[in-house]
Amino acid sequence: MTINRLSGVKTTCFFPLLTLLFLAASAGLRGAESSAQKTKEAGAVSASDFDGEPGDRISSESSFILIDWETDFNDAKARAFIEGKDIFLLFASTDTSVWGQRLDDEVLSNPLFGSELSESFVFLLLDFPVTYRFPEPEFQRNEKIRKSWNVSTFPTVFLADAKGRPYAVTGYRNITAAEYAAHVRELHKIREARDRKLAAFAAAKTGRERATLLAEALRTMDESLLSPHYSEEIRELRQLDPDDHTGLMSDMDFPLKISRLRGQVFQLVRGKKNYDGALAAVDQFVRKNKPANERLQKALFLKLPVYANNERRDHAAVVALMDAIIAVKPDTEFAKMAAEVRQRALLLLSRPPAKAIPSSRSGAKTGPASKANSKKENPANP
Fold first, then answer.
1. How far apart are the C-alpha atoms of 23 and 26, rounded to whole Å?
2. What is the largest CA-CA distance in the chain?
3. Distance separating alpha carbons of residues 45 and 50, to the nearest angstrom
4. Cα–Cα distance between 199 and 181 in angstroms, integer?
5. Segment 154-180 mean pLDDT
6. What is the rounded (10 degree) CA torsion for 309, 313, 314, 317?
7. What pLDDT digit, counting tens, does each position of 41-61 carry?
8. pTM of structure
9. Which of 95, 97, 65, 228 is nearest to 158 (CA)?
10. CB of 103 within 8 A of CB of 172?
11. Cystine design at 39: which of 66, 98, 117, 197 (Cβ 3.0–4.6 Å)?
């Protein structure tokens, strides 16, 4: 089954998750002029939004570009094979969250995006709505793929070859439709590099050379894609390089390690209110694992919930943390997110402190004597 347009996607994205934590902890920012305030709040989907069965996914007015969306993975692979294209796979929940709505409004609904990429990609939408449910066979089919691809946030975008093996992953980005199309074209080069190196690996003779070339081929892709989708290559690499001279096996462990650290930090912050312990956990992780570049930035970002939580709201510390993240590597997506968070923290720092509201609890004195005492205790009082 194909659809012509994508319903108003309103979903959550992995990349700005930590920024959202900061925004949630900094409620005073809501009055500021920022892109986050221009987004629509998530809303429930009513029956009037559809002209047919829920599975038909009739498009909203915002998605006026006619993208020929497939909704079955096998159909998308067959079509990609016949047409000699790759697959643009969007995991979405089309009735929740502002980030997917922004992806739809700013990118998918722009005619430029579809025209730029339709010659190279088959578009596939796997939808996971909250306020309604598709027929059980379709739901189970999509759910099986979601779990096997380790998708837990929406929207998540994968680029995959015609066989259905992903080689790149991305999501919402605060860029224009033209910039997003260029971003996708740049990611498309990963498959070209992967295939060249895999071809060189297949032609190599010696074990050490084969191990090096195979590791290079796998390194062209994000480590999060390797275990679920390249198990045969990993198994062969382990046989060719049992002592991990290429270092790839160690690198592949990083996503799991950072996931465990994230859980530890959130437990210390939210559950135990042990903020110093959370900061120490991040520092210990950095000392032990020695991450660099984007990995170090990703680890340092886990300090943000400590400084930006409702009890601390240490905006000066947030600014210093963002400066440290940007200094690691200024041209990464993490650095861009850090710059946005830093700007918002500076805005909060520039605001005068809120005036204290006098207590009106039972037993408080409100007569003339009390007012006189208040003036004595606070000479700044008029």
1. 5
2. 95
3. 9
4. 28
5. 94
6. 50
7. 233 332 223 233 333 333 333
8. 0.60
9. 228
10. yes
11. 98
Q: In whole angstroms, what is the distance from residue 265 CA to residue 110 CA? A: 39
Query: Where residue 67 falls among pLDDT bands split at 50, 70, 90?
Result: confident
- How many Å apart are CA 204 and CA 197, to the nearest integer? 10
List the helix and strand counts (H, then E) for the chain. 17, 6
Per-residue pLDDT band for 35 (boundaries 50, 70, 90) equals very low
Q: What share of the chain is helix, strand, coil (3-state, %, to 5)?
A: 55, 10, 35
**β-pair partners for 88:** 123, 159
Over residues 85-106, the pLDDT tens digits come to 999 999 998 887 678 888 988 9
The amino acid occupying position 379 is P
Q: How far is CA 174 from the centre of its chain?
A: 12
Which sign does the torsion angle of CA 15, 283, 263, 41 carry? negative
Reduced 3-state DSSP string for 282-304: HHHHHHHHCCCHHHHHHHHHHHH
Residue whose C-alpha is closest to residue 225's, from 356, 55, 83, 89: 89
Torsional class of 313: left (φ above 0), alpha (ψ -120 to 50), beta (otherwise): left
Q: Which of 114, 102, 124, 152 is closest to 57 using CA atoms?
A: 124
The confidence score (pLDDT) of residue 108 equals: 92
Looking from the CA of 261 toward its CB, the CA atoms found within 13 Å total 26
Q: Cβ(267)–Cβ(284) under 8 Å?
A: no
Residue-wise pLDDT tens digits, 223-274: 889 988 999 999 999 999 998 888 888 777 787 788 889 989 989 998 888 9
3-state secondary structure of 87: strand
